[in-house]
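Hi Q.,

Before the meeting this afternoon, I wanted you to have the nicotinamide-adenine-dinucleotide prediction in hand. No need to reply - just skim if you have a minute. The sequence and ligand are here:
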Amino acid sequence: MKDLNNRVAVVTGAGSGIGRAVALALATKGCRLALSDVNEVGLAETAEQCSIAEVRTYRLDVSDRDAIYAHAEQVASDFGQVNLVINNAGVALSCSVREMTDEDFKWIMDIDFWGVAHGTRAFLPHLIASGDGHVVNISSVFGLIGVPKQSAYNAAKFAVRGFTESLRQEMKLEKQPVAVSCVHPGGIRTNIANSARIGKSENADAQRKGFDKIAMTTPDKAANIIIRGILKNESRILVGPDAWGIDALNRVLGSAYQPLVERFSRKNLYI
Ligand SMILES: NC(=O)c1ccc[n+]([C@@H]2O[C@H](COP(=O)([O-])OP(=O)(O)OC[C@H]3O[C@@H](n4cnc5c(N)ncnc54)[C@H](O)[C@@H]3O)[C@@H](O)[C@H]2O)c1
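Predicted structure with the ligand bound:
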């Protein structure tokens, strides 16, 4: 996809953060937008900010499989085609494996993994039918390396990466007209830490302050990097200098990155 003008773009989790910034950037590029979120107030604000474009909003909970499939049909019928799907909606959980409840584990997998998987599969026939489609799935740097107290988030984001990389190869081998990109943001200054679930023995305030300290990139900057990556058909879109650093660490050290993360965590997470 060399040009975004007049393309129909779907963005989940568009009511805040990266999803909102991507929606705004796509609006300026001439996209027609199908924006969704569970947070209807945030979603309405995003739609207002995107008013230079044709925008429709949908209340969608991405953990609801049947709702995603119904949404895909609705968007295709409302716009007549679908070119770009950005599976962005996500949540965070900070908790050790020992302390984590099954309910919290399921909550994050349902949104961060199954939301992406169903979002991809539900829209895929429409993207193929468009003759020029692109799936963009938002993973994380935590889809590249494992980190203490992020086991469930790690599991979801590694799963998104594996699923997405496999799909990209399938589309090429089958000569389908669908490009596929996996996005790995580093720390982006959004609301994610405020809406995160946190284990009973964690200090929520310290976690949020810690996140604010390390989140280096603004959502607008992240959106521009993601759109550039889409236009260049990158398989892996790294967002922010921290993401490039973590990716390099992983390539150079292999699994020997882990003692470095332990050292960082001893100072910052186990105090
Ligand atoms: N902010 C970061 O540092 C960072 C880093 C790496 C990856 N990410 C990923 O980026 C994506 C966007 O996160 P963000 O940082 O913009 O966070 P955010 O909290 O600002 O925005 C997330 C949006 O997703 C929506 N959402 C949550 N649960 C939903 C559900 N069940 N159905 C539909 N919408 C739902 C929220 O209402 C919110 O509007 C997530 O997948 C996140 O994991 C973020």
